[in-house]
Design a protein that fits this description.
Elements (H helix, E strand, L loop, with lengths): L6 E4 L4 E5 L5 E5 L13 H23 L3 E13 L7 E13 L3 H15 L1 H6 L4 E10 L2
Parallel strand pairs: 5-6
Antiparallel strand pairs: 1-2, 2-3, 4-5
Length: 142
């Protein structure tokens, strides 16, 4: 059986449709300054969201294994890019917001650290060129 491959196909102008190995699709487009029409997410935005998604999955899995009562979780990502081409990320900050009942900060800190240092391949990959920092806050569920 042949390996499945990811594919990115041109859809006109600067719009492309990417299909993942798992069969999910996403529309990507360039900004108007690069001939795009804002029909989809920018590829560099996808890289940033990929790191946020990868790390968030890790954090939730670790917190669930630690039996933390999490009711909501999100990560806010801020970034800086190099001025010259290739305009790679130079700094990325991931700020996690965890909502739940009696969530222990030690568990959240550990989950974020393990994701960043061991489990999140997207963060490790981006961290080869960008300084990645993290922070978090815990909000008590109402």
């Amino acid at each position: 059986m042949a390996d499945r491959i990811a594919r990115v196909k041109w859809a006109g102008d600067m719009t492309f449709v990417g299909e993942s190995v798992s069969g999910h699709a996403v529309v990507m487009d360039a900004g108007a300054d690069n001939g795009g029409r804002d029909h989809g997410i920018r590829p560099m935005e996808m890289l940033l969201l990929g790191a946020g998604g990868c790390s968030s999955i890790d954090v939730m899995m670790i917190l669930q294994k630690a039996r933390q009562k999490v009711t909501d979780c999100w990560v806010e990502l801020t970034s800086e890019r190099a001025e010259e081409h290739p305009r790679h990320f130079t700094k990325i900050h991931m700020h996690f917001v965890i909502t739940g009942a009696d969530v222990d900060a030690k568990h959240v800190e550990r989950a974020i650290r393990l994701s960043k240092e061991k489990y999140c391949s997207a963060s490790v990959q981006l961290g080869a060129l960008a300084a990645i920092t993290t922070g978090f806050e815990i909000r008590e569920a109402e």
